[in-house]
Sequence to fold (160 residues):
Amino acid sequence: MEHLAICTDMKVYSYDELTADDRALIEAAKAATATSYVPYSHFSVGAAARLKDGTVVSGSNQENAAYPSGLCAERTTLFYANAQYPNMPVETLAVAARTEKDFIADPIPPCGACRQVMLEVENRYGQSMRVLLYGRDRIYEIEKAANLLPLSFNSASMED
Ligand code: THU
Fold:
């Protein structure tokens, strides 16, 4: 028997420690929560993607009475970015979430399906996509999407 441990790492920042560009991207993600459609969860998530040419696109979670038909903010945003700017790598994706009361204190951990889509975006362009997860009390910076999904299934997994 062999025991394998897979480690990942990320940085933890306070808001004040962030660069002006990263703060602006987080503010775009926070603002995008206002466009969420969340009659079922009342949990608003916003995401903002900064593309390689500096363009910023944002999106939010969109729910549906048939629950699985809804989509998270991260995928709404990345699919929109890829559909509008198919040749433009995504350099950084910021995510923020709030209840009806306030933004959450701890950063929101993206769901598994969103992590899989983030990884595909990164692999598609052959360029790391940074992920910034906003919380009122701290911000997580993940250097590349692959760090959010160790032992991932990807196109290389289908090769012999
Ligand atoms: N949600 C996101 O938009 N992103 C995440 O990373 C986690 C969850 C949404 C899906 C659903 O509309 C609501 O939050 C509650 O799960």
Observations:
- Helices lie at 20-32, 73-84, 112-125.
